[in-house]
Amino acid sequence: MATTTNINATRMERLRQNDRLKTARRAHKLLEDKYDEMVHKFTELIKRNRNLRELVEKQLQQALRLYVSASVHMSTNAIDTALASRHHTVTLNCSSQNIMGLTVPHIEIADETLNKDEAILLTTPVNFDDAIRLLQQLTATLIELANIEKTCSMLADEIQKVRRRINSLEYNMIPDIQSKIKFITMKLDENQRETQIRVMKIKDMQSKAETDA
Amino acid sequence: MNNSNKMIAVIGEQTIVKIFRAIGYDCFYDTDPADVVARCQELDAAGYKIILILEKTAAQIAKYLDSRASIAYPIIMPIPDTVTHSHYGMQRLKENMEKAMGIKVGGNL
Prior knowledge:
heterodimer, A: alpha+beta, Helix Hairpins, two-stranded antiparallel sheet, 2 strands, about 75% helix, B: alpha/beta, Rossmann fold, 4 strands
């Protein structure tokens, strides 16, 4: 409901409220367009996110199972030595992307090197090596999943905010301004009618006085 | 550390996450929720870009993860472990879907 108690019922105020209404309607339309585009983008990304997560979960579980089964037959020292013998480095290139005014992270592999001590391979179980090989293959997918998952999460947050703004404009601000304009218009009309009646009354009284005289 | 690249970290039980050392990720063996949150903050300050947390542990710090949802870096992501696959990662994906669309999606997207 509009609060009409503090409104100055003047033509200037009505003009001001009309401008506000115009701006609010324009903002509402722009936000609706932004919302539609964001939802469209989100729908595309969330499908990719789901597929990637399923793939990563499946492969990661497989790799971790292989590792756990291999580590049962190895001592802690043997595991540490085997892990330390592999000098695998992944260099990431971190930047940001802009999606509908929202800055999201973008990470890609800049460089990936693998140096391993071949002698250690002779002492480690096959499962252990398979697990590491699987994880190495998974790195690129894991990074892509991290990118997409974060983008989806940030987009979902932003979509929620935009939807709240749209609802606030649609169900609160625009009806409020409209009722203010209506109130001012009615008040001005009422004033005009009052003035008209007053003039008619004065004219009537004048003509009556002239007739009596 | 030889394999350290200060970019990707893994947090979880030692018996499971240790293997990530072999592919150049830094491993931290915290399982207590308070320790994990403290570790995440520490890693954030150290400039890590991706933090992977085992699902079981991630589910316990859901509030912290929610508070980081709109912050770009670091990307904190739950990953499954070998024994208790709680589908927490998938659950978060559905929560995002619900947040964006306003409807709960149970089945396929």
